[in-house]
Amino acid sequence: MNMNISNYKTKLNKITTFIFDVDGVLTNGKILITSDGQMYRSMNTKDGFAIKLAI
Which H helix or E strand runs over 52? Predict the structure, then answer.
């Protein structure tokens, strides 16, 4: 595909939604289990920061 930078930026401006598979993409692989047995996935804050910068 042969795209110049201005055409590329124009196409990116048309994007309105990003969809991510969170498990294994935005998580760091850790699962936290509370004393009452609830499970939480741990996420890396750098992923959220990168997404914020991208939009």
Answer: helix 45-54
